[in-house]
Amino acid sequence: MQSSPLKKEHLNKLEGYGINNMPLDACLCLRFEAGENILHEGMPIMYLMFVVTGKVKICSTAKNGKDLVLCYYISDGIIGDLELMTNTYDATASIIAITDFECIALPYQKYAIDLKNNLAFLKRIGSELSNKLLRISKNYVFTTLHSGEERLCSYILQASHNGIFNDILTDVSCSIGMSYRHMFRLLNQLCTDGLLDKRDNGYIIVDREELLRRAPGGYDGMMC
User: Cyclic nucleotide-binding domain spans which residues (predicted)?
Assistant: First the structure.
């Protein structure tokens, strides 16, 4: 993780959330490399993060140690909004950078009270939380009504970075709601069909266009 002072474009983004009349001397721009952990489930939240660029996956860990991918952020949204509005000071999920990731970080406890008294911010965050609820409903439909191949193709497109898909396969099978054995058969079939190529570092996407065609609805089934 690297930190730097805020720039004008960061201040402009915060202004879109109604945060323009607050002292922002304690705020930072944080940058994470692909693969870095941003938050750990159950650990104290240090910052409320406004996404600038990049993609992360949000996971919840079961007692058996398996991770369930809940959704993805791409270049927008707030990390920590749910915790802020429910007065929770520990992260409710783990967040991992899939690509290089940049965000604006506001110290959580320092700004929590001021943000909750900011009507413009509350209106914006209320709208975003409502949209998340709608997308959760869409995710349920996605998991329930689409075929295993469609769900897997969609997941691969979202989780891949630089054309390589290398997620932990046991976690993938949990996240898309199928057995590991069935998912592995589907991966082998995608390789046989020429869409993927199995390598030591993961699966190389060979035919992205066909993968897109087999994924339902523009493969956005698990976006936050």
Answer: 32-132
